[in-house]
Amino acid sequence: MKKANLLRSSIVRCAVAAITCGFLSAPLRAADQKAGAGGAGAPDMEAMMKKMEELAAPGPEHKLLASMAGQWDAEARCFMGGPEAPPTVSKGTAKSTMILGGRYLQEEFQGDMMGKKFTGLGLTGYDKFNKKFVNVWIDDMGTGFFTSEGTADESGKVLTFSGKMDDPMTGEKAKPMRLVTRIVSPDKRVFEMHDLAQGEKSKVMEITYTRKGGSLAGRQ
Q1: Which residues pair with 163 in a beta bridge?
Q2: Claim to verify: residue 119 and residue 163 sit in the same structural domain
Q3: What's this model's pTM, rounded to 2 decimal places?
């Protein structure tokens, strides 16, 4: 009787072990089959790592972003009454730094907005996998995030982004916006923000950045 019980117990343990091994090995077999479709065999980890390293390495687009690093004086013009009305002009400064091994441009902006002190923080990068520029912006006039995606023209002097912005002042959500940066020279660039709902008179803000201290003096 004891031997029969031991035999049954052993059979049960073997069955459980077989089932467990089946569950654990199924995902591995599926991965192997997916990677090895057509008889290619197991995935080439060395090739995969090489591809990952290529996508992670900064490229010419990141060099373009690096040209905007440095210390800047900024003059902002807000067209609250439309581009034909006299703008509201304010001053500010910006510190732009390439971070994480030259992969992202971080901008710290200090200035005035509607008579109040204003602080903003932006990150711009180039996603090599998806082949597009990406920007995220936050500031102390709200608690939301504004994200946009864009491209550079063939000259590398004009970057155009598009995104959707919430406007707490009007209650509007997901307003379509266009952001344009024109690199005039190594020491000057002009940023424009367009509210596309306004049609031809879409420009609501323009910021002119001038490098502090003359040519390339503020570069990080």
Answers
A1: 148, 177
A2: yes
A3: 0.77
